[in-house]
Structures are given as C-alpha cells and as structure tokens.
Sequence to fold (162 residues):
Amino acid sequence: MGEQGRRRTAVAAAATPERVVTAVAAGSDSCTLRVPWGPSSVARVRRALVSDLRDRDVAVTTIDECEIVVSELLSNAIRHARPLGDGTLRVHWKVKAGVVEVEVTDGGGDTSPRPAPRTVWAPSGRGLRIVRSLAHEWGVADDRHGSTVWASLGGPSRRRSR
Fold:
C-alpha cells in the first residue's frame, strides 16, 4: 500500500474507537468503510470522508456538500433500513476528476428510499430532498442483499439515476 493509502487508512481507523473496517488500495481513487449500524457512526464517517477528500485536494465546496450528503444517507439508513448481515453499513466513495460519488449500502427496508413530500411543519423527512438539491445525480440500487443509495457531487457521475 502506498503512503497516501496508508495515511487514509490510518486516519479512518484513528477517527473511531470502535470497529471500522477500511479498504484502500495503493493508488486507488476510492475508499470503503464498514461501520457499525448506529448513530455514532455518522460522525465517524463524516470525519474520515472529509479528511480523505482534503488529502485528495477536492474542492472545498464539494467536500462540504459530501459531508452533508453522507450524513443524510447514513442517517436515513439507520432510521429506515436494517443493517447488513454482519450488523454494519457499507460506505464507499470514489473520486475522479474532482467528482465524488458517495454510496451507502444497508440491509434494505420496508420501502424504497425516495424524497418525502414538501411540508412546513414536519419534524423530519427532508434528508433525501437535501441530497437531491446538492447532488448532480443520485439514485437507488436494490438487490437481494439490501439497498445502495448513491449521489454524485462536484459534477455528473458515469452512472444514471434509477
């Protein structure tokens, strides 16, 4: 593993006292975390993501948007879905030409993720509307193991919304 990959792995591991599995290949343009399914993982993932994107010299505005989006995607997964079979959530991001694609995979839920209708008084339900407003593209991929919600920030992704 190259120096940059070791540094990203060390940053992600140091950011969390609990178990976090990080996969970063040498020279890789991506990072994958498996974090415990629970609210405390949101702040840990945010710190790891921001640190990694800063190391990659991603634009500050894109980093700020990624931080908000990953928080919303993780919070939604914790609130509305089940964990993966091992009790974790998988968070993956990749960077290519300044575009960041973030995805959160969970064990699926009773409904498919979609933005809630606009309301003034509801105490919650704005997460995917926030994601939709910040992302160039976003989508949901369901399979027999769960759901992956993804968003592209800083420019369009190579995949299409579903």
